[in-house]
Design brief:
single chain; alpha+beta; D-amino Acid Aminotransferase, Chain A, domain 1
Length: about 625
């Protein structure tokens, strides 16, 4: 097959896939790419004749000779596709996430065996074997090794295109009986999972091909992993699983039935809840609360004076519950109630009349992990101050991690540990709301490793005795797997080379005097479509005034009004420069944030804090 078919199927202005080009230099590498498109499958590719000869293998290659894997021959791919890893946007051919599952070299084997063994052959022999429909080859990879054969199936089923082959492992020292391909779930190049790759998409408007999980589905991988951290929790986890199973079998759960019927027969009494609760103050419910924010640290730690939680990747929301009604407010004090109609039922799952809760609204992927990309799809993309299209088929879940007010008592001066204890008592978990559990300070490093292995955003560390402060503080810390930060866009640079529209976004953060300080440029993370789209947005806010205070270490800058916020990921903060400034190292653009105000993008709490922990 030539690359014309590859070219015909793709719109290179929209997809990050490499353009078609036949290489003159011959090579003998192979790659296996795990591809979550309409269905999860594996793409097996052999480099020869200046292209990658390609087969789609639904169940993936196997090291077990007993497995005869169906392999559908597809169009040749360019050699530059060898290390492609990322996300193909929706409405494009093959839309979905691509991970490099294995790489290595291969050699053709002569078609005739000598003394029962196949000797290395030539590329000409390989081409002849493909034409004949019986290709024998040897792999030298990170995961796949030994001799294989690709055999063209002669018998064609009705409607067949004649591209069905079988991929078969030969008997040798590398054969593995009962080979389980699912044990290898990370990239051999980036060590990322499919979920992490999906979250590292280059487009600000990426649409996931993954299904969203209903809130009632437990993330078994998370429950099992966390249970291993603390053997004392295994028994309670089993009890909860049993309760959930019985409920789904139709057995009556008195708390759930009471909640569904709007009954308050299980409402706790304030005098009982606060009998020994130091710091609780009797006063009217506050009308507004600004969420307590965490500062950044780079590494996990262990300390018995701290608690650790999973960091859920969604939208922060404080909920005010009064006599059967709920009002949801964002960190910017915007009313979120109409956006999440499911959460109007929230009062039914709180065993009290009045309460103020703090939590995160998330959308879970099919494996029970919070996905910000899915969350963006659910809420819609804001355009010119108006709400864009939303996907109501994506169910939301409210993870609640703090209790600030309860039946006439303000709890913000009560210790975190006690607030969470009472919260767990009054909350009835359901498919729309769940309690965000915490883990002892001795398990901080272990919890971080679980989060890292499972492709989560990170963890939170909170002091056991911390009170609730409506500001960013070092009493709460966030430890991210990949550091991300929200920056103000203050300008853009001219494109260079073949690039179009602009070169990079010039980024800044506000200091304590509300001066916008330059912290670097993000020039990667874009594809052609996002370059064009963002350039159009920048044109609407161009300005002749430099919004930054102090030096800007960038050339050919076009200034813009500091009204847009960009989320970027980066590796670390650089050391202080000669002028005393700090810069982001290797920032990569992730997307424009519509839920953040530029004034929130501050140096305070974002630069790693130095604190005694």
């Amino acid at each position: 097959m030539a690359l014309e078919e590859y070219r015909r199927k793709r719109r290179f202005s929209e997809t990050p896939e490499p353009p078609p080009k036949v290489e003159k230099k011959a090579g003998h590498r192979f790659v296996v790419q795990r591809h979550r498109a309409t269905r999860l499958h594996y793409d097996f590719r052999l480099e020869m004749e200046g292209v990658l000869k390609s087969w789609a293998v639904p169940k993936g290659p196997s090291l077990d000779p007993a497995d005869k894997r169906l392999a559908m021959q597809v169009e040749d791919h360019p050699v530059s596709y060898f290390d492609f890893e990322g996300t193909i946007p929706e409405r494009n051919y093959g839309a979905g996430s691509v991970m490099v599952w294995d790489v290595g070299t291969w050699e053709p084997l002569s078609p005739e065996a000598v003394n029962g063994k196949y000797l290395p052959g030539t590329e000409a022999e390989a081409a002849a074997m493909i034409k004949k429909g019986d290709l024998k080859f040897r792999l030298h990879g990170k995961r796949l090794n030994g001799d294989f054969a690709l055999v063209h199936m002669k018998a064609r089923r009705p409607g067949s295109k004649g591209n069905e082959w079988l991929m078969i492992k030969k008997h040798d020292e590398y054969e593995t009986n009962g080979f389980d391909i699912d044990k290898y779930d990370t990239s051999v190049l980036s060590n990322k999972t499919m979920a992490q790759i999906a979250g590292d998409d280059d487009s600000a408007k990426w649409t996931s091909s993954k299904k969203a999980s209903r809130g009632r589905v437990k993330a078994a991988w998370l429950a099992d992993s966390l249970a291993k951290l603390d053997k004392k929790k295994v028994k309670s986890a089993k009890n909860q699983t049993t309760a959930d199973t019985e409920e789904h079998k139709g057995k009556r759960n008195p708390k759930r039935v009471a909640a569904k019927n709007g009954s308050n027969s299980f409402a706790i009494s304030a005098s009982s809840a606060f009998k020994d609760l130091e710091g609780a103050t009797r006063r009217p419910m506050p009308s507004a609360i600004r969420p307590m924010l965490a500062s950044v640290v780079e590494k996990p730690f262990e300390d018995p004076n701290w608690l650790f939680e999973i960091k859920w990747d969604g939208y922060r929301a404080v909920s005010f519950i009064e006599h059967g009604t709920v009002r949801l407010v964002s960190r910017n004090q915007n009313d979120l109630t109409p956006r999440y109609p499911e959460l109007r039922e929230l009062p039914k799952f709180i065993k009290t009349q009045n309460a103020v809760l703090d939590g995160e609204v998330v959308v879970l992927d099919e494996q029970g992990r919070s996905s910000f990309s899915l969350m963006q799809q659910r809420t819609g993309i804001r355009s010119h101050g108006r709400q864009g299209a939303t996907r109501h088929d994506l169910p939301i879940l409210y993870y609640v991690f703090d209790l600030l007010y309860l039946d006439g008592y303000d709890l913000r001066r009560v210790t975190l540990e006690e607030r969470k204890r009472v919260l767990k008592e009054i909350l009835i978990p359901d498919e729309i709301v769940r309690y965000s559990d915490h883990y002892p300070g001795e398990q901080g490093v272990a919890l971080f490793e679980v989060a890292k292995q499972k492709g989560l955003e990170g963890i939170l560390a909170k002091k056991r005795n911390s009170c609730y402060e409506e500001r960013r503080t070092s009493e709460w810390l966030k430890i991210k797997i990949t550091q991300t930060i929200d920056c103000v866009v203050g300008g853009y640079t001219d494109p260079e080379g073949t690039r179009q529209h602009f070169g990079s976004l010039v980024l800044g953060l506000y200091d304590e005097k509300k001066h916008l300080i330059h912290v670097g440029q993000a020039g990667t993370g874009f594809n052609h479509a996002t370059l064009k789209e963002i350039f159009g947005e920048l044109g609407k806010i161009e300005s002749t005034k430099n919004p930054f205070s102090g030096a800007v270490d960038a050339k050919k800058v076009h200034w813009v009004k500091p009204v847009r916020v960009a989320e970027v990921k980066f590796s670390e903060w650089t050391h202080e420069t000669a002028d005393g400034g700090l810069k982001l190292r290797a920032p990569v653009f992730l997307g424009l944030r519509e839920d953040k105000n530029p004034e929130e993008c501050t140096l305070a709490g974002q630069v790693t804090v130095s604190t005694q922990i």
